[in-house]
Write a structure and sequence with these properties.
Blueprint lengths: L7 H14 L15 E5 L2 E4 L4 E4 L2 H4 L8 H13 L10 H13 L6 E5 L2 H16 L3 E5 L8 H6 L15 E4 L14 H19 L4 E7 L14 H12 L2 E5 L23 E4 L11 E5 L1 H6 L15 H16 L2 H23 L3 E7 L2 E9 L4 E2 L11 H12 L2 E2 L1 E3 L2 E4 L7 H19 L4
Parallel strand pairs: 3-14, 5-6, 5-7, 7-8, 8-9
Antiparallel strand pairs: 1-2, 2-3, 4-10, 9-10, 11-12, 12-13, 12-16, 15-16
Helix pairs in contact: 3-10, 4-10, 7-8, 11-13, 12-13
């Protein structure tokens, strides 16, 4: 593995320039302390002081093929030498090939691909397509969800990041999705949770007026909100409800797609086909910004003779598409999706369940592939979270100390509220996974100190 020789002076200069000029997302600028990173490769990254970290975050759960995959780097370099950019109105070989490779893997007739720069823009355009296709305005989404930070996407989002931007006039209605561990329906089994969640959705539709609802959008498996795998039958039930009322069914695969769950798309586990599917992140491991919408034949036909009123300067950017082609081909050639499934089934899942038995702070383990969450609690009996909902400052101290303990052990963790997510690259090896899980196991002793 290539590593940059430690050079603290360079690191200090990088940090000083960052603090002087970079405005960071989702942050109080005066309260953050960004770590300068010197380089990354595979499942690891390292700083200018020579510290190496196993990346159990895949950055923002997007570097599915790991850092600096040589085939993708080479493809970007080759495309840059051939054609760096071209407006989206032209036909470009690499754009056509990227669309073909994606459509080859999407289910049903999701064969038309509209490219965006990322997941939020994909959601924006999927919602616009649904509204224009149906002539309706409302869109339903769940609490405990994240769909992006642009205007419609942030209103669709069901976590606290929505609150400062929520206009309450964006045509969005939130409802409760299934989450047995903290069931809003007082369910005692997956079957009850599924039945009651579907009944709740039908009630919501009835009271909002079916004729006013353009779409229901769901993360196939909610990501940042907690990796809650839906109970058997739930997504099929939503599909049936949408069909009954003429509502467009949108599945958001931005985080869960492209190998993350051990299948090309998370929806492949549930035998369900949406009308629109959004994607980004893993499509090219984030090497160049890219996202998109996979569109059914019926919705695509809406715009055969009627112009679609949406577009982006960089839609289907050649460098981004080249990286997608190389990523998808590498994933197929190197059996990366299969590796994610195998590591999840044989290594991560069993190890996390063993860890849960040893640590009273672990309330629940859930996930699949390389997409897992540990729900950390003060009290297993009551399910009281280790920290309050949307905690910050002193209230969040238990999670902050747990994160510090992970980093001291060379593990870079993904934390959200009272959860830690285990989301390494889909290329993670058994040895790397076990290394990270051992560090996680040790670090959880800090969380155990706060349990009753």
């Amino acid at each position: 593995m290539t590593t940059t020789q430690a050079d603290p002076a360079v690191g200090a200069a990088v940090k000083a320039a960052d603090r002087a000029h970079v405005f960071h997302s989702w942050s109080a600028q005066g309260l953050i302390d960004p770590l300068p990173i010197a380089g990354a490769e595979g499942s690891y990254m390292w700083d200018y002081d020579g510290n190496r970290y196993l990346d159990f975050t895949s950055q923002l759960v997007n570097t599915n093929i790991g850092h600096q995959h040589p085939k993708v780097v080479a493809a970007i370099q080759e495309q840059a030498g051939k054609l760096c950019t071209l407006a989206p109105g032209f036909a470009v070989d690499v754009r056509s090939e990227a669309a073909r490779l994606i459509a080859e893997r999407t289910p049903g007739d999701l064969d038309k691909i509209f490219f965006t720069n990322g997941g939020a823009e994909a959601v924006e355009n999927a919602v616009r397509m649904a509204r224009l296709h149906t002539g309706r305005s409302k869109v339903l989404s769940t609490y405990r969800s994240y769909h992006g930070a642009t205007a419609a996407a942030i209103n669709l989002t069901g976590d606290p990041r929505r609150w400062p931007s929520d206009t309450a006039s964006a045509g969005v209605v939130h409802f409760w999705g299934p989450y047995l561990y903290r069931s809003p329906f007082h369910a005692e089994s997956e079957q009850q949770e599924c039945e009651r969640a579907l009944r709740h959705l039908e009630d919501t539709i009835a009271y909002e007026g079916p004729q006013s609802i353009a779409a229901i959008i769901l993360e196939t498996i909610p990501g940042t909100a907690g990796i809650m795998v839906p109970p058997p039958g739930y997504l099929a039930g939503v599909r049936e409800i949408c069909d009954r009322y003429g509502i467009v069914f949108i599945l958001d695969e931005v985080m869960a797609g492209f190998g993350r769950t051990g299948r090309w798309f998370a929806l492949d586990h549930f035998d369900v086909v949406p009308d629109l599917m959004t994607f980004a992140k893993g499509v090219n491991s984030g090497y160049v910004p890219l996202g998109g919408v996979a569109i059914s034949a019926e919705i695509a036909a809406t715009f055969d003779q009627r112009p679609y009123p949406g577009g982006l300067t960089y839609s289907g950017h050649p460098l981004a598409c080249a990286s997608a082609v190389a990523t998808i081909n590498a994933m197929a050639e190197e059996r990366i999706v299969e590796n994610a499934a195998e590591i999840g089934e044989k290594v991560i899942g069993p190890a996390l369940r063993e860890i849960a038995e040893r640590h009273p702070s672990v309330g629940e383990v859930r996930g699949m592939g390389v997409f897992w969450a540990l729900e950390l609690v003060k009290d297993r009996a009551t399910h009281e979270p280790l920290v309050p909902y949307n905690a910050s400052g002193a209230d969040n101290a238990p999670m902050a100390k747990f994160a510090a303990a992970c980093k001291e052990r060379g593990l870079w963790p993904f934390l959200n509220m009272n959860r830690t997510h285990v989301v390494p690259p889909c290329t993670v090896t058994e040895t790397e996974a076990k290394e990270g899980l051992a560090a996680l196991d040790e670090a959880l002793t800090t969380a155990d100190a706060y349990t009753v």
